[in-house]
Amino acid sequence: MKGIKDEVAIVGMGCTQFGEHYNKGSSDLVYEAALEACRDAGIELKDIQAGWVGTAFSGEVGTCLSVPLRLQYIPVTRVENRCATGGDTIRNAAFGVASGAYDIVLALGYEKQKDTGFSGTSMGGPELHPVFGHRTALATFALRATNYFSKWGLTPEEGKAMMAKIVVKNHRQGALAPKAHMRKEVTIEQVLNSPIVCWPLGLLDCCPVTDGAAAAILVKADIAKDFRKDYMLIKAAALVSGPGDEYGRDDYDLSHFEEAKRAAQLAYQEAGIKDPLEEVDLAECHDCFSITEAIMYEDLGFCPRGQAKRYVDEGIFEMDGKLPVSVDGGLLAFGHPIGATSIREAYEAYQQFQGKAGKRQLNDPRIAVCETFGGAYGAWSASVNIYGKAP
Amino acid sequence: MTGIVSCSAYIPYYRLNYEEFARAWNKKLPKGERAVANYDEDCITMAVEAAMGSLNGVKRESINGVYSASTTAPYKEKQSAALIGEALDLGCGISSMDFANSLRSGTNALLAAVNAIQARPDERILVTAADCRLAMPQSSLEYTFGDGAAALILGSSDLVAEVEYTYSTSDEMLDWWRTDTDLFVNTWEDRFVLQQGYMSIVPKAVSEFIQKFGVTLGDFNRVAYYAPDPRSHASLARVLKLSMEDQVQPCLIGKIGNTGCSNALAHLIAALEEANDGDRLLFISYGDGCDVLSLRVTAKVANLKHPNHRTIKSSVERSKKLSSYEKYLAYRNLLSVDISRRASYPSSASVVRRERDQIIRYHGFKCRNCGTIQLPRPDNIRVCVACQSEDQMEHIRLSEMTGKITSFAQDFVFATIDPPAVQVVVNFEGGGRVLGYLTDVDFEKLGVGAPVRMTFRKISDSAGFHNYYWKAKLI
Fold this sequence. Notes:
- The structure holds 2 protein chains of 2 kinds.
- By secondary structure, chain A is α/β, with parallel strands linked by helices.
- Chain A has 13 helices and 11 strands.
- Chain A has a 9-stranded mixed beta sheet, with helices on both faces. Chain A has a two-stranded antiparallel sheet with strand order 5-6.
- In chain A, helix 3 (85-98) crosses helix 13 (341-354) and helix 5 packs across helix 10.
- In chain A, 62% of the residues are buried.
- The model of chain A has no long low-confidence stretch (mean pLDDT 96).
- By secondary structure, chain B is α+β, with helices and mostly antiparallel strands.
- Chain B has 2 domains: 3-331, Peroxisomal Thiolase, Chain A, domain 1 (3-Layer(aba) Sandwich); 401-475, CATH 2.40.50.
- Chain B is 25% helix and 28% strand.
- Chain B has 13 helices and 22 strands.
- Chain B has helices at 18-25, 43-54, 80-87, 105-119, 141-144, 190-213, 230-239, 253-256, 263-274, 312-317, 325-331, 349-354, 356-359; strands at residues 3-10, 14-17, 33-36, 65-70, 95-100, 125-131, 148-155, 161-170, 176-177, 186-187, 222-225, 280-286, 289-297, 320-321, 363-367, 373-374, 393-397, 402-411, 421-428, 433-439, 451-460, 467-474.
- In chain B, the strands form 5 sheets. Chain B has a 9-stranded mixed beta sheet, sandwiched between helices. Chain B has a 5-stranded mixed β-barrel with strand order 18-19-20-22-21. A 3-stranded mixed beta sheet of chain B has the order 3-2-14.
- The two termini of chain B are 37 Å apart.
- At the A-B interface, helix 4, strand 5 and helix 7 of A face strand 16, strand 18, strand 19 and strand 22 of B.
C-alpha cells in the first residue's frame, strides 16, 4: 500500500464559532465554514470541482452540502463514520485529488445537535433493534474508566484525579481559543466535585454537545504554492473500521481501543514516523471524555501501556511539555459537533504551522497528529491523519 | 402415578415495608413487608425465573407442555405460555396453554396438567403461576398484595411427591374481582367477603374431600393453603381444627404478600421444601370454588434440599428494602415519572422474530473451527470473530451461564424510571463475554469481579409490544 504522503495539500480552511447555536441551522453552519475556507484559499465556490461532506446525523445525501452552497451540479459524497467522520471526509477528498480526478475540492464537516430538546447526546442508532437500539456514549466510556482503574491498580480517587488533570489542561487551552465552545478555566476541585453523570465520570469529564462546522480546500501538493506559501501537507490519512473483537472476544482488553492503535500505526507508517513522542510536535485526539484522552496517549504510542497517569503527572502533554495534546482545548473544551471535529483538529494544526495560533502558538511545530474515533461499544472506526508544515 | 418432578418459587428482590404505606397514608399498620416486582419484571419474566429454578436437573427435551397461569398477564391477546417456553429454550413441539382470570388459575393449570399426565404418562408438563396484581392506592389490599411466581413440573417418574387424590368445587362468589376495564382489584365488604366466601366455601370443600376419599385431617403432616391475609389464614386453621404448630404451613403473606394465583402454590412449594420422605400433604386453593389435592412425599424430595436448588426460602430471604412508596408507584406505572426526552427505543416485530433465538432464548454462537463463544452482535454471526471462518457457527444456550463482572458503569443520564442504569461487561465461565444491564442492583456488592447470573426481564414497550431480553443479576 503506497499511501498518499505529501501528495495532497490543504490551502484554505474555515471554522465556525463552536457552541450552542440556537439561532443557526445546518445551512448557516455549512455556509459560514465553506465561505471562510474559500476566502482563505483565495477561490470562489464555483471553483470547487467536487465536495465531501461529513455529518453523523445532521444531513443526508450530498445535497446537504450542494444545496446550502448552490454548488452547480458537481459530485458531492456524504461521508459518515460517527466521530471519525471529519477525518474520513478529508481522507476521501484527498483521494479525489491524489487520483488526479479533481484539482480543487472541498472537505467540510458539520453537526447541528442543539435542536433535540435535551442535554447530552441521544441514545441509540438507526437500527430497529429491541435491545441494541438503546445505549449511551456515557456508559460506553465510563466502563472503560472503571476497567482502566481496575487493571492498572488505580483507586477511583487516583483515577478521577488523573482524569481531572486532563480536564483542567484542556479547559485552560480552550480558554485561549476564541472559537472554542467552552472558554473558561476550571480547577481540579471543580472537576472532582462536578455531579456524577455516569460513574466514574462527572459532568466536567464529558465534552459538551456542540453545533459547528469546519472546512478545508484540498489541491494536489505540486500546485499548492500557487495558492499560498504556508499550505499544509497531508502526510498520512489512515482509517480503521474494527471487526468487532471488542464485542465478540472475551479476552479483549477494555483499557484500550484497538482501532485507534492500529489506525495510528498505519498513519505513522505512511508518514514515516518511527518515534511519535520525539517526532510529533502536537497532537489532537478524541477526548470525548477525559478518560478517552488518557487511553489515547497509550493507543497513539505517546506513552507505554498503563503509564498515562505518570505522564500526566509529569506534564508531558501540557502546552509547555514534550508533546502538547489538545492544544486548542480538544473536544472537552472546543466542543464536539461530531462531523466537524476531525476537521477542527486539522484547523488547529493549520493555524499552528502558519504561526497564527495566537496565545496557543507552539514553537516551530512541523508535524501534527489528529485522531478521532467513533462507533459504539464493540467496534469503532478510527481516523488518524498526520499533517505537516509546508517545506 | 402422577406427581411433581420438581418445583421452585420466585419472589422478586424488593420489599416495601408496611411503614412506608403508613407514612404515605398516615395510617397505623401492623408489622410486615410485601414483595414488589422490579420495573423490568412482569408475570412472564417472573414465571420464567421460577421455571428456570424448577428446571434444575430436568432435561428440557423431556418437557412436553407449558401451562401458564396469571390474572395479570401482560397480554390480553397473545399467549404467555409460548413466550415462557421460548425464553426457557424449550422445543416448539410442545403444548402451550394459558390459564387466566382466577386466583385458582394456578391450581387449575396444575390439575389440568395432572389429568394430561394421567392420559399420557410419558409426558411432562411445566406449570407456571405468576401474578402482579394492583390494589387501589390507600386501600388495605395495597400492602397485603405481593408479586411472585411459582413453577412445578408434573410427570409420572422421578417424583418428589405423588398426587393421591384431587377434588374441585365450583362456587361462584363476588369477593375479589377485576372487570375487563378495571386496573385495580375490587372487593366487597370485608365481613361479607370472608364470612360468606373464604371461611364458608373452603371448609365445605375440605369436608367434601374428606368424605369422598375417607381420610381425616389428622392423616396429614402438612396442610398448605391459600389465604387472602394472615388473619384469615389463622382463622381457617382454627375452623378446620388444624395444629398451627405442627400441621399448618406458615403463612408467608406478612413477608411477601398475597401473590395472587401463585400464592397457594408458593405455600405448597414451601411445604415440599421442608417435607420428608413419607409425609402426606394436603393442599387447598381458592377462588370461585376450591381445588384440593393430597400428595405423598417421596425420598426424592431431598433434591429440593440440594444447595444449588433455588428455594422459596432463599427467595424470601434474599431481599432489599425498596426505598419508598413512590418508587413502588413508579415501578407499577401508577405514577407518571419524567424520564427525559432522551428516550429512543426502537423495535421491530420482524427483528424480534428473526432473532428470537438470540433475543428470547439467549443463544450465543460457538465456532466449530476454533471453539470461540461469541455473543450475537449485530445480529446473526456468519464470520467468526477469532478465526474469521465463514458459516461455522453453532448455537449455544447462554441463559444458564454464570460469570463475573469485567467492568461496569452507573449511568444517571440513561432514560429509565430508576436511575442509575448499570451497564456491565460480563465474562462467562467457560468463555464468552456479554455487554448488558445489571438489574436488582446491590450497590454495595457491585464491583469488578462480582459474580453474576442471567435473568429474563422486560426492556421496553417500544413499537407497541413488550420487548424482553436478558439482564445480569448479582449472585
